[in-house]
From TrEMBL:
Gene Ontology MF: a single term: glycerate kinase activity
Leader sequence segment: none
Highest taxon of source: Bacteria
Pfam families in UniProt: Gly_kinase (PF02595)
InterPro entries: Glyc_kinase_flavodox-like_fold, Glycerate_kinase, Glycerate_kinase_sf
UniProt entry keywords in alphabetical sequence: Kinase, Transferase
GO biological process: organic acid phosphorylation
Protein name: Glycerate kinase
Length: 191
């Protein structure tokens, strides 16, 4: 199971998307990407597995997706879809008025197979509003609206850095949730 759809290498591959989050600078990202490209070429040539780098999720976990396919004969499956099926999420949605979900940071990666994308896909087809309470809202978060997120709320109340926000996150989450539910209560009273 994997929670991303990234290819093994390239602009949307493992190195360019995830290595900067782990502290890699541009020079290191390029080296990592070249290494993943080389690994892909070796796998294709030696194991006769065509286009392994472009299989959805090949870039998951730094290239473990591709490794599982090549060396273990694995098949990649969406982690969130598997979990939602396991807990019979669709049944839980029956007679549901709205869904609240969360994520540490909502950004362009969130729409690439992460938890929020799986939940949004299922609530959208049922016209169930989906509200996301997140630690932070980053670049590309607006793509979540197309997936089915109705509204998103960041819990950061004072433009703190992550290090400053983390100890207060539970309190801020609670305050933000109260605000969201207060607005919903007002809306329902008017109906």
């Amino acid at each position: 199971m994997c929670d991303v759809k990234n290819p093994l290498y390239g602009e949307n591959g493992a190195a360019y998307v995830f290595a900067p989050q782990k502290g890699a600078d541009l020079q290191m990202v390029k080296r990592l990407d070249n290494g993943l490209r080389h690994a892909s070429e070796v796998i294709e040539r030696e194991l006769n597995i065509k286009d392994i780098a472009y299989i959805e999720g090949a870039g998951a976990a730094g290239g473990m997706g591709a490794g599982c396919i090549a060396f273990l004969g694995g098949k990649l499956k969406s982690g969130i879809e598997s979990v939602l099926d396991m807990i019979e999420f669709d049944k839980l949605l029956e007679n549901t008025d709205f869904v609240l979900t969360g994520e540490g940071r909502l950004d362009s990666q969130s729409v690439q197979g992460k938890v929020i994308s799986g939940i949004a896909k299922r609530t959208k087809i049922r016209n169930i509003p989906l509200i996301a309470l997140v630690g932070g809202i980053g670049d590309g978060a607006e793509q979540a609206y197309n997936l089915g997120v109705t509204a998103m709320f960041g819990i950061d109340r004072d433009a703190s850095s992550f290090e400053q926000l983390a100890p207060k996150s539970a309190l801020y989450y609670e305050k933000t949730l109260k605000d969201v539910l207060s607005v919903m209560k007002i809306t329902w009273l008017k109906q």
